[in-house]
Design brief:
5-stranded antiparallel β-sheet; 177 residues; 4 helices; alpha+beta; elongated
């Protein structure tokens, strides 16, 4: 993300930012005395950085911690989830390591030989998935997910057998099968 993109995402007019020196100290600690407001929300700034702005030169971008965290670009998989999962599985096989992948993104089908599929949905939307090769482990994970997340309103947890056409083995809350 470029500095201009960052300012645009924050809704900040670069003309409203304080001028910064052409060189920016590694940390603008002298600005973090509580007198500079966050450019996004106005709370006292706890982080600052010099940004290059088209037409306005170098400016200080002051942010409070919540706004800094909310607007910091995060690295992550650049390709589709299926590609990332395939790379991880290949590396685990090569290293001789047992690997279970739990993701919060939808995945189109069972992964490799992972027969038992666990899905957690919130308000009808899948938010977490996991696959395991053996039923005992999958049932243990099912119980853990119910204990950790089952009390939230709108939560549904299902355990299915992918080798049996996706047959539901267990669900929470139980629907009286």
């Amino acid at each position: 993300m470029t500095d201009a993109d960052l300012l645009r995402s924050l809704g900040v007019d670069p003309a409203q930012l304080d001028p910064a020196p052409p060189w920016t100290p590694r940390v603008g600690a002298e600005r973090l005395d509580g007198s500079h407001p966050c450019a996004r929300c106005g709370e006292p700034a706890r982080a600052t950085v010099g940004v290059d702005t088209p037409g306005h030169g170098r400016r200080w971008l002051d942010r409070c911690m919540p706004c800094l965290i909310a607007t910091t670009p995060r690295g992550g998989p650049r390709g589709p989830l299926a590609d990332t999962v395939a790379v991880l599985r290949g590396a685990a096989r090569e290293a001789g390591v047992a690997l279970t992948i739990v993701t919060d993104e939808p995945y189109p089908a069972a992964v490799d030989n992972q027969r038992f599929h666990l899905t957690l949905t919130a308000d009808g939307r899948p938010v977490m998935r996991g696959w395991w090769p053996d039923l005992k482990t999958a049932e243990r994970k099912f119980a853990a997910w119910v204990g950790e997340r089952g009390s939230r309103d709108g939560t549904r947890i299902t355990l299915t057998d992918e080798a049996d056409g996706g047959r539901v083995l267990k669900s929470w809350p139980d629907e009286g099968r």
